[in-house]
Write a sequence for this structure.
């Protein structure tokens, strides 16, 4: 199935998702202020553009990313009701599951998750000037995440990755991964 073959309502949801998952993660965290918001929005545009140019991804995902970029003028309007992004993902996947080749669907789901992670990593949320108790909490959460990864035989994420992504962003990414049906846990 091609993007153009989708019903208009589903197609609009699909095309909006690359932007909306990135914005969902960015909006989940209020630390960092306007500077982090600007860095995250620049990262969002960059990562969506990258996927348009990355010919190794699936045809379907590439067509989605291309139309998302072509409709950049509409992005500001796509920020409304951002809290329903996980529901939108489930609705889209329920529709696509028996209409799209498994590899194409997996590639699309992975692209969405990668966008969410890339946006979260765009700005370092950790601040060494925070009170000692908050810094200790952050370092303990990193230690716990690494121990869990070791026990489960999962990849251990870098120190920088874990520091760049705030607790709220981690929760948002994990919710998106659940909605996408992708086995992924961060911090």
């Amino acid at each position: 199935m091609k993007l153009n073959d989708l019903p208009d309502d589903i197609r609009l949801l699909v095309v909006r998702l690359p932007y909306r998952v990135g914005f969902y993660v960015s909006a989940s965290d209020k630390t960092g202020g306007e500077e982090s918001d600007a860095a995250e929005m620049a990262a969002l545009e960059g990562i969506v553009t990258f996927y348009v140019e990355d010919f190794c991804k699936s045809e379907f995902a590439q067509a989605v990313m291309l139309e998302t970029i072509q409709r950049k003028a509409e992005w500001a309007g796509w920020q409304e009701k951002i809290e329903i992004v996980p529901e939108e993902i489930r609705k889209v996947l329920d529709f696509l599951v028996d209409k799209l080749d498994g590899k194409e669907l997996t590639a699309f789901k992975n692209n969405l998750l990668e966008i969410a992670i890339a946006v979260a990593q765009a700005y370092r949320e950790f601040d060494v000037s925070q009170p000692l108790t908050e810094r200790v909490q952050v370092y303990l959460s990193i230690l716990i995440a690494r121990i869990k990864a070791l026990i489960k035989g999962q990849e251990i994420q870098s120190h920088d990755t874990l520091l760049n992504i705030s607790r709220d962003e981690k929760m948002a990414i994990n919710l998106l991964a659940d909605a996408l049906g992708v086995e992924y846990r961060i911090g």
